[in-house]
Write a structure and sequence with these properties.
Number of helices: 10
Order of helices and strands: HHHHHHHHHH
Radius of gyration: 21 Å
Structural class: mainly alpha
Number of strands: 0
Helix content: over 70%
Strand content: under 5%
Shape: elongated
Length: 244
């Protein structure tokens, strides 16, 4: 697939490349998190006390897993910012809306207390639980852990907004004459994501189907942005040479 996107501003070639690299890193971190999840001791699915004891016993692995789920949110912000700028010539207003929804939804991930696979706050609760000397002192931390466990299974608005961002940026992409295969794949991925986020508590492992689509979409986006960055850099360099 050609990286050409007629009308894209070549002066943003560094942002396009940053978006491409970020897409690749996000996929790598997500895959690493899944590998760690598969090989590490299985965490309890219920029970605040059991979870806190699990976190205390597997502290390093647990923290690493949470970071591998959380850091990609920053990378996804760069990906969507790059896409919004690359497609802004197609419809500036639509690009601004899609960009704000997408970037803001991933930014809010840092304020949401859970990652879908746990929470960094659980580590703090585990430390305080371990320091407590009586059952009465431990009770508030057990209750807090149970709240975090419940939040992991609750369909979060930010999850729906993240998938909506994929749909919006893909619909914007459809306004152009290139990247149309990628655009339609993004519409499907975002649509499946919206349904998956809404039904997350009952889908179980079926939710992973959306994850696979997201990985493929990100890899495709990464290649597209990388080639666009290379061509935009060449165009920008040619323009500077003419000016000289």
């Amino acid at each position: 697939m050609s990286g050409q996107l007629p009308g894209a501003d070549p002066s943003w070639h560094r942002l396009y490349r940053a978006g491409a690299v970020s897409a690749g890193l996000a996929v790598a971190l997500y895959v690493a998190a899944l590998v760690v999840f598969a090989v590490a001791a299985v965490p309890p699915v219920s029970g605040g006390e059991e979870m806190l004891e699990y976190v205390e016993a597997h502290r390093t692995v647990y923290i690493a897993r949470q970071l591998m789920w959380l850091v990609p949110s920053l990378l996804m912000m760069v990906v969507f910012l790059a896409l919004a700028m690359a497609l802004s010539h197609l419809d500036k207003s639509f690009a601004l809306i899609a960009g704000v929804v997408s970037v803001a939804s991933w930014a809010v991930s840092f304020a949401w207390p859970t990652t879908g696979d746990g929470s960094l706050a659980m580590v703090v609760l585990s430390d305080k639980y371990a320091d407590a000397t009586t059952s009465a002192d431990q009770a508030p931390f057990v209750a807090g852990a149970e709240v975090l466990i419940a939040l992991n299974d609750v369909p979060a608005v930010i999850g729906a907004l993240q998938t909506l961002g994929i749909v919006l940026i893909s619909l914007l992409m459809l306004k152009g004459i290139t990247w149309r295969g990628l655009a339609w794949f993004g519409v499907v991925t975002g649509g499946v994501g919206l349904v998956s986020e809404a039904l997350r508590p009952v889908l179980g492992w079926a939710y992973a189907f959306y994850g696979v689509l997201l990985f493929v979409w990100l890899i495709w986006i990464g290649f597209a942005l990388w080639r666009l960055a290379a061509e935009a850099r060449t165009t920008a360099s040619a323009g500077r040479n003419r000016c000289e």
